[in-house]
Design brief:
alpha+beta; Peroxidase, domain 1; four-stranded mixed beta sheet; 14% strand; elongated
């Protein structure tokens, strides 16, 4: 029975994570995999070529060798493993799964700060730092989403937590109180 995309990503992501952690190169491998992901997203033809069933193994290996020369032995070995087992089509999913494991280990979370106006980097950092401190995390990376309909304040969504400090929500609560009192 064939594995689903999620199962392949989970297995290979966990294998890479375990290998990098055991060899004490986790941070370096993480950095390289994030760079690789950016490059592959910018140039999706790389995955197309390396997962093309028509191309022979030698041509794929030659192509991969040209790409991987800037990476560590660990990442090179992993990329060769993906090529050998014909898993290159799953590369971005594998990297994403690896990143989830890395973030969990390092108490890093990502989320969204929805505001009525755009926040600058310093404001986002302070919001993230405050959330991280409150929820015992090392780092919270926030992306700013602008939604003028919330009127003001901020809605923070990080992992499974939502903190709605928007003016719209506060007005809604006040309205509900007034209606309940009458």
């Amino acid at each position: 029975m064939a594995l689903s995309r999620e199962e392949v990503a989970a297995r290979y992501g966990a294998a890479l994570f375990g290998y990098a952690q055991d060899n004490k190169v986790l941070d370096n491998v993480y950095d390289e995999m994030m760079e690789l992901k950016k490059a592959v997203i910018a140039t999706p033809q790389v995955i197309s070529v390396l997962s093309d069933p028509i191309l022979n193994s030698k041509d794929k290996k030659d192509f991969l060798t040209a790409i991987e020369k800037n990476f560590s032995e660990e990442v090179q070995g992993f990329l060769n493993l993906l090529l050998e087992y014909d898993r290159f089509a799953y590369l971005v999913d594998i990297i994403d799964q690896f990143a989830v494991l890395y973030d969990d280990k390092n108490k890093i979370a990502s989320g969204t700060a929805t505001t009525a106006v755009k926040l600058d980097d310093d404001q986002l950092k302070r919001l993230g730092d405050g959330f991280a401190k409150k929820y015992n995390l090392n780092t919270v990376r926030l992306e700013n989403k602008v939604d003028p309909s919330i009127l003001g304040g901020v809605i923070l969504q990080v992992k499974d937590r939502v903190i709605d400090g928007s003016v719209k929500n506060k007005l809604k609560k006040i309205r509900a109180q007034i209606i309940d009192e009458n």
